[in-house]
Design brief:
eleven-stranded mixed β-sheet; about 500 residues; about 35% helix; alpha/beta
Amino acid sequence: MQRRKIAAALAVVTATSLWIVPQAQAENAFAKQEIKWQKCFDQVPPGFPPGSERLECGTFTTPMDWNNPHNGKTITIAVSRTVPLNGKAKTAVFTNPGGPGGEGRTLPLAFLSRPKLSENAEIYGIDVRGTGASSDITCGLYDTLGSTDPRDRSKANLDLLYGGMELQAKFCQTKSGEFGKYVTTDQTVKDLDLLRQVLGRKKVDWLGYSGGSWMGAYYATYFPKTLDKIVLDSNAQFTGPWQPIFDDWGMGFERRFRVDFLPWVAKYDNLFHLGKTGEEVRQTYERTRAKLAAQPVTLPDGITYYPVTLDVLLLRGQYGKHSFQSTAQKLAELAGVVPAQLKAQAGYPDAQTATLYTILCNDTPFQGGRRYLERDAVRDGARWPLFGYYQIMGPCAFWDRPNVQLKHPDGIGVAPTLMVQSVRDPATPIEGARKAHAGFAGSRLLTVNDEGDHGIYGLDNGCVNDIVERYLVDRVTPSGDLSCPGVPLPEPGQQQAGVLEQARQLAVQLGW
């Protein structure tokens, strides 16, 4: 979708095109630049958390290609920050919402409700290269995911499905041009350390969620002496390539769907009328899916629902327990058992999608072609029907990958890292987190038992919040692995957005 630009909401002017500087400019001049901080908006938009007027925005310039920084081509990185009210920060925390390619400038607002952190640290949000208000890339608004039902394994549909993935790769690489080759983890972590230098900080801390665990592990690997405290929440298997991370999506979402979501919906059958047991609810989903395949339905929110739209609705609903009610309500509307309610839905910028594909496909090699993808989808779809047929990284099988050689993150020489992980996280399953923990020396794993949320710190788990803030603010590193109990599933009416969802909603409202 086209990015909506709300000029009144953003006081600072940010560039999304490449800038040219004289070839003779010295590399160390990048570190001497100064960020001109300004208020991110003239008036706090309705519904924003108290204290949002404190959010400041700015930009800095970085080489387009860190392997050839003197070629005269640069890009712009957009950042934000909050500072303690007393102006005395004990530390600076770089944050990342994941993705990869997630826009990060609203994320500091999510920690205003955590005064132990927000009143002791400067908290920075970053739109990494390729996305948001930074120099961005595009797939020409083309996105094949969801264009056809991957459960349909007829030859005609497979040609559409995998032809679409091949076309996705061509669109992303052609439309993003030269810059697309340099949207990688290797380049991004060097942008991050330049930001540290521009701020005049000898060391900074890191708080990364989901794909931000990957970015944080690589930042620490490339610059082990400049990161002090490192929190990785909801961990990708960052010690391996991207491919197995997304291969595990089907398993992770199916487990969350069957163990947490379906029984919860059944528990409140008097409200949703979808079934009295988890299996009955699942069968209602399957019947509704089949019905939508025969006849798509447009609800009053203006969205047309067909099988893929329904699957994505349920997928998004598994990230946090506080999304269960709205997800079940929409499923009930589509199943025809409760009246539809009027509500609008916002869209997403193409740059985030383009950055997602580009980082995934540039960073690490993809093993296999169309035949592999076909076999993989049949196998995973049979085991995990909710999302096992979907292949997020499919376009990487057709990607003309540049020569990118990432360093291997092993934790050696890195400050002790705190990893936070729920046992039923759907998007970054605990199996991958445990492998990353085992392969990252000095890391401490905080396991959140009987929990399935993706993104834990900063919401309603007091045990996790206390341990993370004791580490980040009090500078006390846990002596070893530890655990916290999860938060029980809420009753209907007790819903609230998680940290990542809060940041996303605020960004959409601002048009960022």
